[in-house]
Write a structure and sequence with these properties.
Structural class: alpha/beta
Largest sheet: 7 strands, parallel
Number of domains: 1
Bound molecules: nicotinamide-adenine-dinucleotide, magnesium ion
Mean pLDDT: 97
Number of helices: 8
Number of strands: 7
CATH superfamily: NAD(P)-binding Rossmann-like Domain
Strand order of the largest sheet: 3-2-1-4-5-6-7
CATH topology: Rossmann fold
Length: 284
């Protein structure tokens, strides 16, 4: 695993949405020691924000486990193409779909296209997200407020509505929430609110879909080294260093949790959140 405490985090210079290709210190996507064991063989997965960071790591781990992967991303073509190469290197199919999930029309179209190409969708990973920091919550602009809520939670619910008709018993929905939903974050008042909503969405939807045996869970990352961080936050020199493990995590250290939630290993689990955060104890 990469020694993340030696990353010169503050030296990155990224503009949003953040290109992984432009990072000086690249995130670790998969550990050399990771061995796939056909846990997702033949499954068809759709991963939003799958071009980079945590989503890229999920895509590559799913591919290692034998799943075909459709990746939806905002506009980072180079990152998306690289992820496609990494996925296809595992001998599975990869579909790329570029567009803005905050536009309902795109959500609807993209699901129709992926469902047509894949036949059905077995795993939906709702992972795309965005954030703006603001010192004073009174300065959060209406535009940023709307963009953050639309992208992070409203689009998530709408996209899930579109995907649901293409799912069968045993299908999985896995949402990326955040530790900020549990601990709060003084600079991310609106973002953390969307993440709280994602946790509640996960719990409520799991109860409705339990009788259909469609399992809905979430992962709450702590500080993970991805393009989102240098692209959207200032003063990140000590990012992750206040956790018990004393460093930020890598995408390679969180993606296996998504494999677990997508696989036969988690059949008695729904409505829950896995906390991968460097050892911080949070309620729920
Ligand atoms: P990332 O920037 O690599 O991934 C986020 C992706 O979301 C982007 O690649 C982008 O293509 C996609 N996206 C954003 N807005 C979109 C839109 N309107 N339409 C379509 N796609 C859009 O960063 P990441 O850290 O891997 O983020 C993945 C998820 O993890 C996010 O939901 C984020 O909130 C969450 N998260 C990250 C951390 C962390 O420390 N990195 C911590 C907690 C939660
Ligand atoms: Mg990206």
């Amino acid at each position: 695993m990469k020694e993340t405490t030696t990353i010169e985090k503050g030296k990155e210079n990224l503009s949003r949405p953040g290109l992984e290709a432009n990072m000086n210190t690249k995130p670790e996507i998969i550990k050399d020691s990771y061995r796939g064991s056909a846990k997702l063989k033949g499954k068809r997965a759709m991963i939003t924000g799958g071009d980079s960071g945590i989503g890229r790591a999920i895509a590559v781990h799913f591919a290692k486990e034998g799943a075909h992967v459709a990746i939806v991303y905002l506009n980072e073509d180079g990152d998306a193409r690289k992820t496609k190469q990494m996925v296809e290197a595992e001998g599975v199919d990869c579909i790329l779909k570029e567009g803005d999930l905050a536009q309902f029309k795109f959500c609807k179209e993209v699901v129709e296209q992926v469902a047509q190409e894949f036949g059905q969708i077995d795993i939906l990973v709702n992972n795309a997200g965005t954030q703006y920091t603001e010192q004073n919550f009174t300065d959060i602009s209406v535009a940023h407020l709307e963009e953050t809520f639309k992208t992070n939670i409203v689009a998530m619910i709408y996209l899930t509505q579109q995907v649901f008709p293409h799912m069968k018993s045993g299908a999985r929905i896995i949402n990326t929430t955040s530790i900020t939903a549990y601990k709060g974050h003084p600079l991310l008042v609106d973002y953390s609110s969307t993440k709280g909503a994602i946790t509640s969405f996960t719990r409520s939807l799991s109860q409705q879909l339990a009788e259909k045996n469609i399992l809905v869970n979430a992962v709450a990352p702590g500080p993970i080294w991805t393009p989102l961080i240098p692209a959207t936050m200032n003063d990140i020199d000590d990012f992750g260093e206040h956790t018990p493990l004393g460093r930020c995590g890598q995408p390679s250290e969180i993606a296996p949790a998504y494999v677990f939630l997508a696989s036969e290993d988690s059949t008695y689990m729904t409505g829950q959140v896995l906390h991968i955060n460097g050892g911080q104890v949070v309620g729920g």
